[in-house]
Predict the structure.
Amino acid sequence: MEYNFRAIEKKWQEHWVKTHAYRVSNNSPKPKCYVLDMFPYPSGTGLHVGHPLGYISSDIYARYKRLKGFNVLHPMGWDAFGLPAEQYALETGQHPAVTTAQNTAFFRKQLDNIGFSFDWEREINTSDPNYYKWTQSIFLKLFNSWFDRSLQKAVGIDKLIALFESNGNAGHECPGDRTISFTAAEWKQYSEAQQREILMHYRLAFLAYAEVNWCAALGTVLANDEVVNGVSERGGHPVVKKKMRQWFLRITEYANRLLEGLETVAYSEAMKEMQRNWIGKSQGAEITFKIDGNTDNVVTVYTTRPDTIFGVDFMVVAPEHELVAKITTPDKKEDIEKYLDYVQSRSERERMAEVKSITGAFTGAYAVNPFNGKLIPVWISEYVLAGYGTGAIMAVPCGDQRDFLFARHFNIPITNIIGDAFTGEEANPTKDAILQHSDFLNGVNMKAAMDIAADKIESMGIGKRQINYKMRDSGFSRQRYWGEPFPIVYKNGIPYALEDKDLPVTLPHVENYKPGEEGEGPLANITDWVNIDADTKRETNTMPGYAGSSWYFLRYADPHNTTTFADRSATDYWNQVDVYVGGTEHAVGHLLYSRMWTKALYDLGEIGFDEPYKKLINQGMIGGSSRLVYRIRGTNTFVSHGLKEQYETDALHVDVNIVDGVELDIEAFRNWKPDYNNAEFVLENGKYLCGTQLEKMSKRLFNTVNPNDVVEKYGADTFRMYEMFLGPVEQSKPWETKGIEGVHRFLKKLWRLYADEQKGLIVKDAPATPEELKVLHKTIQKIDADTEHFSYNTAVSQFMICVNELSTLKSNKRSILEPLLVLLTPYAPHLSEELWHLLGNTSSILDAPYPVFEEKYVKESAFNYPIAVNGKTRTELSFALDVENTAIEETVLANETVQKWMEGKPLKKMVIVKGRMINIVI
RNA sequence: GCGGGUGUGGUGAAAUUGGUAGACACGCCAGACUUAGGAUCUGGUGCCUCACGGUAUGCGGGUUCGAGUCCCUCCACCCGCACCA
C-alpha cells in the first residue's frame, strides 16, 4: 500500500463535494470565525504558483479554526468587472461576459485542484446582475446621504433638507463649495434645479465637474492611485488633466475616521503608514493677507508653521489660482502670461519628471504682513499646487528648502528668524529653534510659538486653525462598458436617483466597445437604452473596479438574498472579517474604499460595525527563478554554465519547466522551439547546467510555473505544504520547483509510519512510550501555536522533525499517530482524511477534535547545561532541574574541563539560568 | 528627499524574544541496497586548521556575565510616497 496521492486526492475532493463538507451555516452555537481572501480578478492567463500562497495560508487557518471548534466562513468569488476583459473584447469581439465566464471556470478548476475548503455555495461574482443590483443599491444609499460634520457620521439627505428648510445651511458648511451660504427663506425660493445642485455639493456620492486624469489611450478616466508618475499604472500611457462631469465619492469627509480607525485594526505598520501617508493629515492655519493697494482682493494661504510668520519673504500662488488674474499688475502682465503659457504647455508627466527645476514669475503685487506691515512680493510657481490647501503659500526660505531654493534662484532677500540654526547654505526645517526677529514671538521655542501665533491670528480675525488632507475625493466614473451601470437618470439634465425597486439597471448588450463621441463610455452609443423618453436619459458612465469589491465581504454572509444586500442578522452574525489575506498592492485603493463604505453603511444603520477587516495579512510575492542557457555567438551551440567563460556567449531564458534543478533536459529543449531542433551542446560532466537569475515571475521570462503541473507531479498536499515551507507568509521569495522534493519525501515518510507497501496498515493499539508521547506533545504545542500565528514554515519543519523522530523510534501506535493526523489536516487535508479512514474512523477528519497539549508529557526532570567560561561554551553537564544552585556550582567547579579553562584563575561570579545555561566568570 | 522593511552557510530559512547560531529542507560529498534509479536508507557538510583550537549573523563601536536579538554610527538592498506648504 503506497502513497497514491493522485487517487487519494481525487477521491476525497469528490467525497467532500458530495457530502457538502464545506457548506457553512449562519446558525450555529459555535463561535464564528470569518477568514477571507482578496478575491481575484479572473484574468485570461490563469494562476501561477505565486497566486495560491495567500489562499493556502487562509485555508490552513480556516481549517485549523474549524478543528478548534469554530463555525468558519471561508468563501471565494470573483472581482469580475474590469478593463482586461473589455480590452480583450475590443480586440476579438468576444463579449466580456463570455470571456469572464470562461476565465472564472478555469480559475475555479485550478483552485479546486489545490483542495481549498471554500464554501462554493456562497460564490459571488461582481458582474452578475444579482450582485451588482446591490452595488447599485448601496451607491444610492451614498447618493441619498451626506456627512454631518457635527456628528461625524453619514445621515440621510432628507435630514439635510429639513435643516435647510428651518435654518438654511448655517452650521453645516458646504463640503463641495465653502462659499455657499443661504438662509431658510432663500432655500425655499430656489428652483428645484438649484436645490438639487446645492444638495449635490453635500451628497456622499456626487456629480461634479472636475479635472480628472484622462487617459486617451485607454479612453477612460483614472483614479489618482491608478496614475503613477503621470502615466497610467496599467500600460504606462500618458495621462492628462481634463474637465469632465464625473461621479465622486466624498471620502475626504471620512479622512479623520479612516485615520483613527487604523488604531483599532491589526494591519502591518507599513500598511497603516501607507494609508496614513495617503490620507496625509496636516494641522496648520489659514491666514488671510491684504494686498497693498488692492482693496478688492486678499490672498489666503495655508501653512503648518504659523510660528514662522515673521520669516515670510514672499508668497507663492498656484498658476491656476483665480487670484492670479486679479492681482497681477499691468507692468507684469506680460511676464505672467508668458509663464502661464509655459505651464500650460507642460504635461503632467513633465511636471512630475522635473521636480528639481525652479520656475516662477512675479505678479507685481505685494501682500501685507498683518503683524509688521512688511510688504511681501506675490509670485506664482508650479511648485504650489492648486488642489491642496488654499492653493497659496507664505514662503519662509530659512525654514523650507523649496522656498529657500526659490528665493536664491530669484534673488529674494532671506529673513533669518532662527539665528544660528540657519546657516544660509540650506533651509532648516526645525521646530526646536528659538525665534528671533519675530516681534511678540521673540525668544519663544517654535513648537510653543505655533499655538501662540495661531491664537493671535484667530483673535485678530485674520485666519483660523485648519486641518488639511492630501487625500482627494475619489473619482467614481469610468468611460467604459464592463462595469456597473449607474442607477441614475437625467431629466432635463438634472440627475435623479432611481429607486431600489428599479434595480438592477442591467448592462445592455453592445455591438462594439468604442468610446462615445465626447469621451463617454460605449453605453452612450446605444441610443434606445440611453433615451428613456424625450427628456429622460440614462447615465452612460459605469462604476470603477473598486465598486463591487468595496462591500463584497458583506455579501458572502448572505449571498442569495433578494430583498437586501445582506440581511442584518447575517452580517451581525459574521460581523467583521477576522482575518483578511491579500497583497500589499491594495494598500491604499481597495482597503480605503472598502473601509469608507463600511463606515457609511454603519452610520446609516445598515450594519453593526465600522471597520471591515479586523486583521490583515499581506502575503509576499513569489518571484521567478529563471534559467539561462548560453549560446555561443553566431552558432546554434550551447555551452554549460561552468564553461561559458571560455566562449563569447549570449544568455537566453529557457522554460524552467524543462529544467530539473539546473540540469537542462536536452531533448525537451530541442523540442521546445523549432530553432533549437538541431542545437549542439558543450556539456560538463555529461550534463548541461543552466545559470539562474531571480526576477519577476512572468510568461515573457519563461519562469512561470502552473500549480496544476506541480499538483499533477507531487499532489496538492505536497504543493500546499511546500508553498508554506518556503518561508514566512509575509515575505517575498523565489520559487524553486526542485525544493519541493523534500516536502514530498516527508509526506511519503509519514505515510510509511501508517502503512507498509507489502503489509498494508501497520498501526498498533499498544500503549505509547514516554518518548513517543513527548514527541507528540512537543508537536501539538508547536503546531497549535505556529498555526494560530501564521508561522506555517516553522510548523512544517516541526512536522518533519516529528516524523523523523517517530521513524527513528519505529513508532506505530494509534494513540500517537491518530492525533498527529488531526494536526496535519489543515496542511495536508487529503492525506490526513485517507489515513484517518484507514485507521477505521467513519466520520470526516475535518471535524475531528483537535489534540490537547499536556505539559506533563514534555516536562524534563533534568537539563543538559552548556557550561561557558567567560561566555565561551566549553562543555556540557546535566543537572536535575530541582537541584540547588550551590550544588551545581560545586560540581561545575570540580569539572575537569572547567578547571582547564579557568587556568587556575579565581572565580569572580557564576551565572546560573535555570534550564538554559551556566556561565563562569573569571 | 521622507516613511516602512530587510541584511544569518552554496540556496530557502530557523533561533523559545538577551542564554549552546545555522533547527528543518534544497544542493553537494561519501556509502548501503539495487538490473537500474530522478526510489529508499545511513553518515558528512559555515569558514580557517591534519589536529588542538580559532573564527563567524552587512561594517564599526557600545551596554551586559552573556548580543543575530538591545543602543549609536555607517553601508547595501527591497517596498511605498514624492514639490502636500
